[in-house]
Amino acid sequence: MTLPYLGTLVKGLAGLAPKDLPAGQDGGVLEIDEPLRTERLLLRPFTEDDLDDVTAYHSLPEVVRYLYWEVRDRDQVRELLGQRRRRRRLAEEGDIATLAVVLQETGRVIGEVNLHWVSAMHRQGEFGFVFHPDFHGHGYASEASTRLLDLAFDSLGLHRVYGRADASNVASAALMRRLGMRQEAHFVQNEIFKGDWGDEVVFAILADEWRARRHEPQGNERSNQSTSQ
Does domain 6-161 have CATH number 3.40.630.30? Predict the structure, then answer.
């Protein structure tokens, strides 16, 4: 099955500092005002100037195939951006930060990543990603997700981050495996999704596992990214 779309099936869907942070971490609120940089990308809050770029992929049927929402037109995306622009602050359990992924070379928004503060007591978070299919095959989703997970564990003090996807969305599952996440569950026909019973898979990684992986030789990581979506 060819799946040009790459994105997790985010249920319901940075910067946060949970009330029960590990020792040595500040308990203040974190707002993401400055871009988070990677080698090729910027992760930043959305602006009204992103309308054309976001419409370009939110209007594609292959992008929304595994998402709860349907294709959006320009007016619907404009309304959405009004909401997304405010998603830059994680101050309490339940908050979600959604960041535009910008290609530094061109300044174009090629996708988005999000982080949901699920539990303060248990320091749990959920992440998701959506990318324009024209930019698959270059490692951008891996690069952006890696930066987001660095933020989740190193800056936000989370203990565990998980992602969920439709079981048919093999591209998203493959990306989460490349990030070092393990599959923890496969729920069979756990909900009716777009008119049919659907299966769901859950992947997760712990903070210690992520940090150990990040200290592996860089050559291994670059090799993974070179073949990623």
Answer: yes
